[in-house]
Design a protein that fits this description.
Order of helices and strands: HHEEEEE
Shape: flat
Number of domains: 1
Structural class: alpha+beta
CATH architecture: Beta Complex
Radius of gyration: 19 Å
Largest sheet: 3 strands, antiparallel
Oligomer: single chain
Strand order of the largest sheet: 1-2-3
Strand content: 15-25%
Number of helices: 2
CATH topology: Antimicrobial Protein, Tachycitin, Chain A
């Protein structure tokens, strides 16, 4: 009977670690360079209808969403209809947001 509880506990821990990916990169730029501000928008690594926008130097990018039935195309730096969207390799932004407490 104790093995059943131990198994259930292990199963719960594994499912929680899979469901909550801590530290999973999303492509959010830190907006710490002038080049990032000049480019302005970066793709989200996993959500093709969302992208990151740099508004000010030193302020991490904020998340923006394309209109319904559109996705962010990084090559065009714009939202396009799904029929025009194609996959492109992910490229890391020049900087990343600073971790909390640093």
């Amino acid at each position: 009977m104790n093995y059943l509880y131990l198994f259930a506990l292990c199963l719960a821990l594994v499912s929680c670690s899979i469901a909550i990916p801590l530290g999973k990169p999303t492509g959010q730029p830190g907006c710490q360079t002038e080049a990032e501000i000049a480019v302005g928008a970066y793709r989200h690594y996993y959500l093709k209808n969302q992208y990151w926008v740099c508004h000010a130097l030193g302020v991490p990018a904020s998340l923006a969403t394309c209109p319904v039935a559109q996705a962010w195309l990084d090559d065009a730096k714009a939202c396009v209809y799904f029929a025009q969207w194609y996959w492109t390799p992910t490229v890391a932004p020049p900087s990343q947001p600073l971790a909390a407490g640093i």
